[in-house]
Design brief:
The complex is a heterodimer of chains A (263) and B (203). Chain A has 263 residues and is an alpha/beta fold. Chain A has one domain: Aldolase class I (TIM Barrel). Chain A has ten helices and twelve strands. In chain A, helix 1 runs parallel beside helix 2 and helix 7 packs parallel to helix 8. Chain B has 203 residues and is of the alpha/beta class. Chain B is 25% helix and 30% strand. In chain B, the strands form three sheets. A seven-stranded mixed β-sheet of chain B has the order 2-1-3-4-13-12-11. Classes of the chains: A alpha/beta (263), B alpha/beta (203). Chain A: Heterodimer of HisH and HisF. Chain A: It catalyses: 5-[(5-phospho-1-deoxy-D-ribulos-1-ylimino)methylamino]-1-(5-phospho-beta-D-ribosyl)imidazole-4-carboxamide + L-glutamine = D-erythro-1-(imidazol-4-yl)glycerol 3-phosphate + 5-amino-1-(5-phospho-beta-D-ribosyl)imidazole-4-carboxamide + L-glutamate + H(+). Chain A: Keywords: Amino-acid biosynthesis, Cytoplasm, Histidine biosynthesis, Lyase. Chain A: Belongs to the HisA/HisF family.
Chain lengths: 263, 203
């Protein structure tokens, strides 16, 4: 195969700024969205995901101004997540220049939304984010409203069934956020990702748990995912993307290497 | 050279913004239009497009642009679905007659455990022909693809990419070019290709 494995930094956006902190509290301003997006693009990120944390919990639509600013500035693809509940909201974001839109909780509330988005824009624009956690009986099941720890609800839907359902409805890509490993930085949940991989024929992106270069190597090798998403390790500078790509290439994984960024 | 005026044909695709911005970053003025006069007065014509073949053709027909696109005498570039529409026929949506500006047809990419569909991500360009559009592009450089249908390799293929089998990544027939990938989202390689389209192909 010659298709490169993708490295995808995820940026939380609030009121047009990039913030860091838990999804709901202690937000620290990380800087201007265009500056950070441009930096990641220059360093060789293959794609960016912007999670609009202002939009989702408050029931607001995504403010498309910052989407336009990002689209003007960068020359790699990007996806917007958070706050998209309708074809109209998705259209506004895609018209502003986003390449893909990602839906999570709204899809759990009304799965038909996935089909409507795929019919309107094509499956290649439609990403479904899945928040998943292993229950005490050993089954992985999905969660909704995970942006707010107090509002988060466990659903009686098995993760493997849900992934197959949304792919049948028209999801062109799945981002699987393994909540059990999220924030712990001890590695992606390879066991769960491998199980989802086995039932997922569209591209699959791993999320939750990246803490070291080996975690990326492991998730690509062991779970055969198409992309790996991470936030903290990139924002903190713990892992630099050019070095990460070199390491992955050295182990024989196919990646897109870019010339060293010049200041 | 003065800034080339580019007509971006309004084919109802959603991702017009990023094509416009990419051309503007290169100093061109790009205008989204469905007006025959605007299109025929431009220095370059780009047919973008995201979505499905049937809807794209319906939009062009409703806007009366099928004839107009056949009349274009300046370099024309189709991007992604826009490239697929340049060909004669697509298997998508149960079979669609497309513009027929470049010989060939578009088929569904067969999904396999190794080659997932949609074909999404950065893939390498191979088998590069000597062509002004590909000046300074080297074999093995990567472009950003996202599509479920593709044109098999044929006599009009200028570059290929492999996903399962080999597919046309760039095609040309006369002054009509097509790129299956998204140059506006393909970093430095994409900028090179668009710069060539604005400059080199007219020399």
């Amino acid at each position: 195969m010659t298709l490169a494995r993708r490295i995808i930094p995820c940026l939380d956006v609030r009121d047009g700024r990039v913030v860091k902190g838990t999804r709901f509290r202690d937000h620290r301003d990380m800087g201007d969205i265009v500056e950070l997006a441009t930096r990641y693009a220059r360093e060789g990120a293959d794609e960016l995901v912007f999670y609009d944390i202002t939009a989702s919990p408050q029931g607001r639509a995504v403010d498309v101004d910052w989407v336009t600013r990002v689209a003007r500035a960068i020359d790699i693809p990007f996806c917007v997540a958070g706050g998209i509940r309708s074809v109209e909201a998705a259209r506004a974001v895609l018209h502003a220049g986003a390449d893909k839109i990602s839906v999570n909780t709204p899809a759990t509330q009304r799965p038909e939304l996935v089909r409507e988005l795929a019919d309107a824009f094509g499956v290649q624009c439609v990403v479904v984010g899945v928040d998943s956690l292993r229950d005490q009986d050993g089954q992985w099941r999905i969660r909704q409203l995970t942006g707010d720890p107090e509002a988060t609800r466990a659903l009686p839907v098995a993760t493997l069934d849900w992934v197959q359902e949304v792919v049948a409805l028209g999801a062109g890509e799945i981002v699987l956020n393994c909540m059990g490993s999220d924030g712990v930085r001890s590695g992606y949940d390879v066991e769960q990702l491998r199980a989802v991989r086995a039932v997922c024929g569209v591209p699959l992106v791993a999320s939750g748990g990246a803490g070291a270069v080996e975690h990326f190597t492991e998730v690509f090798r062991e779970a055969d995912v198409d992309g790996a998403l991470a936030a903290t390790v990139f924002h903190s500078g713990a892992i630099a993307i050019p070095a990460l790509k070199r390491e992955l290439a050295a182990t024989g994984l196919v990646v897109r290497e870019v010339a060293e960024a010049v200041a | 050279m003065t800034a080339p005026r580019v007509a971006l044909v309004d084919s109802g695709g959603t991702n017009i913004g990023s094509v416009t911005y990419a051309l503007e970053r290169l100093g061109a003025t790009a205008r989204l239009t469905a007006d025959r006069g605007d299109i025929l007065a431009a220095d370059r014509v780009v047919l973008p497009g995201v979505g499905a073949a049937a809807a794209g053709m319906r939009r062009l027909r409703e806007a009366g642009l099928v004839e107009t696109l056949h009349e274009v005498q300046v370099p024309l570039l189709g991007v992604c679905l826009g490239m697929q529409l340049l060909l004669e026929r697509s298997e998508e949506d149960g079979g669609v007659e497309t513009l027929g500006l470049v010989p060939g047809e578009v088929v569904a990419i067969p999904a396999t455990p190794q080659a997932r569909v949609p074909h999404m991500g950065w893939n390498a360009l191979e088998d590069l022909a000597d062509d002004p559009l590909l000046r300074d592009v080297e074999a093995g450089e990567r472009a950003y693809f996202v599509h479920s249908y593709a044109a098999p390799v044929g006599p009009w293929t200028l570059a290929t990419t492999r996903h399962g089998g080999a597919w046309s990544a760039v095609v040309r027939h006369g002054l009509r070019w097509g790129a299956q990938f998204h140059p506006e989202r393909s970093a430095a390689l994409g900028a090179t290709l668009l710069r060539n389209f604005l400059g080199e192909v007219g020399r």
